[in-house]
Design goal:
Layout: E1 6-10, E2 15-20, E3 38-42, E4 53-59, H1 66-77, H2 81-94, E5 96-103, H3 104-120, E6 126-131
Antiparallel strand pairs: 1-2, 2-3, 4-5, 4-6
Helix pairs in contact: 1-2
Bound molecules: L-tyrosinamide.
The site of L-tyrosinamide has 13 residues, from β4, α1 and α2.
Length: about 130
Amino acid sequence: MFHPLLFYIPLRNETYRLRLAGLKMGTEDPTGDDPENTATILKPKPVTKRPSLYKVLLLNDDFTPMEFVILVLKRFFSKSQTEAEKIMLEVHNQGAGVAGVFTFEVAETKVFLVNEFSRRKRHPLKCIMEKDSS
Ligand code: TYC
């Protein structure tokens, strides 16, 4: 993308001034300011971008047994017994709690699997996802 025989002079953000290494025949440009020998080009945008992250949340309700929520946290979010108990109590006391943070497709899959599992076991436990702001 960048040419070895050209000088790239960074200007604002995305803009570069490009100075030709060789001058046009019969011209002299000691300062490099002659517009004949320069051009302004756009710096290429980086091709890669870090993916957005999504929080997977469990919501409190009055009927799902605490043991079932702990089981869900262990089975679908690989939490230890101690971590699972802590998160379950947080959900129970605060109304919602984070089970994990994932890329979009992984979060979507976790939400689907947890809600299906809860529905099949006839518990009203709800799992949702929301974009992580940080
Ligand atoms: N509030 C429920 C109870 O008292 C327990 C519970 C915790 C339910 C977390 C859902 O996501 C939840 N049995």
